[in-house]
Model the fold of this input.
Amino acid sequence: MTKRTSDDNDEADDGLAEAQARIEALEAAAADAEARAATTLEELTGAREARSSLEAQLAETAAARQAAEGELQRAVSEAGAMRTRIAEAAVKYREAKLASAPEIPQELVPAAEDLAEIDEAFEAARRAAAQLRERIEDERQSARVPAGSPARRGQADLSALSASEKIRLGLQQLSDR
Done:
């Protein structure tokens, strides 16, 4: 029986050693799992802090965007008002230019928003009016009749005409006058 107890003891010792080895392996696995859990918890905490920081930045960015949109709307409104004022000023400028030169017809200077365009059109109209004035003056000068008796016209030889043709020619000349 002693042999059996010795074998039983050896088996128990082997079982105990195996159980002890399993316990140690389980303790190592538990320690490893705890370490991984702690690392994961730290990472989670860091991620939450980063998320909070990003949410704060997002809120700031949204507020800045909203302020920029408001500023843009004001700028667009002001630009529209300025365009209207510029158009009104251009109309008044055109009217003043035309009032300073009554010889220039208004139709020759089209309405525009650009003052340079108005000036160019005004100068072109001024040149056209000057050319027209010169032509009219030239025509008036050429249409003048000298004082005194009218200029003699060359008399055609009527001797070859019959009496009735001479009468017809005379009546035609009377009707032309």
In short: The radius of gyration is 57 Å. Residues 2-100 form the longest helix (99 residues). The chain has a mean pLDDT of 88.
